[in-house]
Structures are given as C-alpha cells and as structure tokens.
Amino acid sequence: MRGRHDAGFAADPVRSAAKSVSTHAPVPEDRYPALAEIAFLERSGFATELLSWASSLARAKSIDAAELLIDRSYLNRRDYEMRLAEHCGARILESDETLRIVDVAAVEIGTTSRLARLGGEERLALAPQAIGYAAVLELFRADPSVLRHAIFVEQTQLRLAVFQAKANSVVASTLAGLRRRNPEFSASYRFDEAQLTVLCLLVAAFTVFAWFRPHAAYVGGMLVISMFFFGVVLLRALQTVLLSRLPGGHAPAHNFTAAEDHPRYSILVPLYREANQVPDLVASLAAVDWPTTRREVFLICEARDRETLRATRNARLPEGFHVVACPEGGPRTKPRALMLALELCTGDFAVIYDAEDRPHPMQLREAWAKFREGGPDLACVQAPLVVDNGAPNWLSSLFDLEYRVQFLGNLPVLASLNAPLPLGGTSNHFAIRALRECGGWDPYNVTEDADIGIRLARMGWRCDVIHLPTFEEAPERFDIWLRQRTRWLKGWMQTALVHSRRPIRAVQQLGFRGTVMFHFATTSIVISMLSHPLFLFLAVYDLARMVSGISINPLMLFVTGLCVFNLVGGYSTWIYFAKAILAKQGRQVSWRLLLTVPVYWFLISFAGWNAVRELIVSPHHWEKTRHGLAKRRDFANIAGAQ
To answer: Rounded to whole angstroms, how far apart are CA atoms 470 and 530?
Structure first.
C-alpha cells in the first residue's frame, strides 16, 4: 500500500495534489484519448503534467483516468463528482437529501440512472461512477443541455434508494430465488419425496427385522452407527498426518504488496440487537488496510431493531459505510439479510464479518493475493477465527481449542486435499461472480456458511484458506454457548440433508473422493455427535457389569468393544490433532484440560439433540448469540497478534 490513500481528504484535495506543479495552457481533450473525463480539472489548479501522466497510464490500463487519480488519492470521489457536476451543469445529492424513485415497478436495483423525485420536482438521478465518467462527458459533449436537470448520486446511494422503494418485491425475490431456481439446494423443506420414501422404508424394514431378530438388529444398528463414528476417527488420523506437510505459522503481513489498481471490495456485516458492538466494529473496519475509494461497507440491520439502527446512524461512519434496513419478513436469519445486501453490492469481492469480529487489518490484502494466485475457479477463501478474550473459564477454554482445531487444522487440511469446505460463518471472502452464480446464501439454512461451501464445490468452484485471522469472542456462559451450538448443529443437519437428496448427482459433481470427504467432515460428525452419549452409556454399563462378574452375551461383548474402540479412537485422535495444531503455533495445552474433552463432547451431544428437536418444530428459527459480555483485547492491538 502506498501509504497515502487518504491524502486526498484535504480541504481542497485537487489543489493540494497539484501544488508546486506549474500550470500550463489547457490541454486539448483529443491530445490523450483517456483525458476527456479529467481535462476540466485544469481549471481547478490540477497540473497539466499530472493530467497527461494519468491519461497515458489510464489508456495503458484501459481504465478511466479519473478512477486512476481517485484510486491513488490525488482526489477523492465525491470531490471529483462535485466538480464534474459543476462542469456539466448538474447538481450533486447532498447527504441529508432523500431520493424518491419514480415508477418503481420498472426499475432494477443495479440501475445506473433513474427518474426520481427530490423535494417538489422530478429529476434524472444518475450514478456517474457506474455509468463511467468518460461516458458522462460524452453525453455532455453530445448535448450540453442533457444534464442540466440531472442529479449526480453516489452509486450505492442510488441502489439504496431503489432498494427501499422496492423493499417488498426484493424480499420476495430473495426468499424465492434459490428455492425457485434450484430447489434441490434449498433448505426450505427438510426432506424431498425420495428421501422421505427411503427413510420410511428403512425404518419399516428395521422395525420388522428387530421384531424377529432383536439381537441381530441391535448389533447391525450399532455397526451402522459405528461406521460414521469410525469415519470421523479416520478423518482426524488422516488430518494429523497431513498437517505436518502444511506450512506452519501465519504468513507475514508485509508479503502482501499491493498492485496499483485495487478491485472493489464489499464488506457485509449483519447486525441484530448489537447496538453495543457498533463503535468498536466501525473502528476495526475503518482500520482495515484497503483504499477507501475501493471499499464499501454495509451495516445490515433489521427494520424492527430500532436500537441498533439508531446506534449505526448516530455513529460517525467513515466514507463508504452504509446502513441497510432489511424489511420485515421471515425467516429472520443472517443469510436472508446477506442475500438482501448482495443486491446492493458493487464490488468484485465480498467478505462477511459479524458484529463482534475484529479482522486483522491486512486480511483483505492476503485474500486478494490468494485470489490473484488461485486461478479463475477460486470462489472463496476462509480466514481463521481466533478467540481473543483469553480463557476465563473451562467452557471458553475448550471453545478456543475447538476453534483452533477447526480453522487452523481441519479447514487447511481439507483445502490441501481440494475437498469441499464447510466454511465458517464469518471472514469468508468471496468472488462475487461465483457467489451470484451459485445462487448466494440459502435464507432457510441457519448454518449458511457450511452449506454454501459445499454448494460451490458441487458447481465446480474451489475454496481455500488464508492465514491472517479475525478475532472473535468466545461464549463464557453455558446458556449462550448452548443456543449458539444448537443453531450450528441444526444448520449442519440441514446441510447434510440438502446435499444427500441426489446422491448420484452429488458423486458426479464432487467426485467419489470429494463425496466421501464431505460425508466424513459433515454427516459423520453429526451422527457421531448424536451417538456419543449412547456409546458412552453402553461402554460404561457393560464394563461395570463385567467388573461385577456378570456374564455378557458374545454379541453384546462385541458391541461393547465397538463402543470402547470408537470412544477411545475419537478422543485420542481429536486430542492428538489438537496438540499437533498447537505445536505448529508454538503453543501448549494442559493435559488437565484435555482430559475433560469427553465432558465437553457430552455437552455438544446435548446441543445436538436440542438441534434435532428444533429441526422438527422450528427448522428456520435463528438462535441469536449474545455478544459483548466478555473482556476482550483492544482491537487496535490485533495487528501484532498472530
């Protein structure tokens, strides 16, 4: 980064950029083909040499010269557009003015110009950036009177005006989008007809078999469940071996040098009942190292959440920050809010953050570097999530360890195998083209991150990981932890059901290895988590009977051995994997904490069965996680925390 992206925010950025450079006679617009949209700046004191240089470089890069000057902070966008409006005889929309779109039914959110009512008159509202500055000047040269009654509007302002005017139809199309275009991928229903038929047949067959051969049915059922549990054991063992082949530590931030021209980045932050998070959130996002002229931040609130809306609107938002009020409607989920905001995005890339997130300032740069190197099929890169409120109690300590296993071990190894990635719910950076092509997030899936990672893989896209982290808050209270974990597991169940609807097609899309890895990393984990208390109970019960001298049927003894094998294998491989991850980080963990892993797994199982209940009675209900209760590291210090 050149270190002067905000240099243009002086009292008069054009004159500031041009100072100490001599001024010459006006440059003819035909001298440089790309100079048309900046030639008039000479009248404001911009030096001829600077305009000529920008014109030549812009022509070589096939971009607007004005965009080049804005990106390199010789002036800011609003200043340029104010001068452009003055040159063309138009006016610019003031920050306290509200556009009312005329003829709403015929307009799209992505429109670049629209008839709008401002005060008591109708004017043509247009976004010069979206149309292209050169194209605006071409209109003006062709007919100097054409823009006399026009209003120049910032691109996102125009989109927001249309969004608010079309709120009801936008919500309807968002909810119906994926379900209408590709219902196989929608979690709006639990089972399709084929799944329900197969499930009923299997239950009926097992019931009849158990009636006539109860012992055999019992052993057979335990064998089937054990296959899934053993799949997780195999996965963890494989990951532990492969982990040693991955590069260790975090990539140094100074490796991410900037190219001269930055892509536009959209930062999406869903907020709900999180007014207390707004000040630190805005400060941490403002500290992200990316040119303000190439960045847009959407703080996405629910219209009914007046407290959070008030906090965002009262905050002193930096340039490029926008507040979006999502209209009423259900399901009231995070992916629904993201899908509504996706309509507003003008970026080439998008990243998702939660209200409590504190991303490393250089994270966008590492993500962009990964996209540049990753090839055209790279759709998403996942940044690791790291707990930053320490380890105040046993629950948060194991949550911290679990996060490290997931984001510093599980996902990097899966990415190295080019396997489908069950993404994390935040800090995933998307190529917007891929995001829109795959249908975006499913509003009905309460763990939309894992689902979209699998769907991208099925549609031929690839996901990868980066190193620079986002810092998050670990829950310190059991009730908060339970609600969050219930929602996660319910969403994983939805994801497993969705991507098991057409098993043959899934194999064709993911390949045999990709399909196996998906079921190992998702379906097997869900089933093993649900069966963990059963295995634990049977193992303890039968071992107690053996110690007391009671004889056990050989078949029952076989089941006991199976339970013990799975439990020991599950605990030991997870613990060894966790220790291997921490060793690569130069960290250690106490054996006293590790020996309590079975208790933590039992709590996860409790949350899992609660998720099963919710999947039946309220599949799309979003359990909100409460944040802001822990003492966290100052966001200003996270750049040095690797």
So the answer is: 30
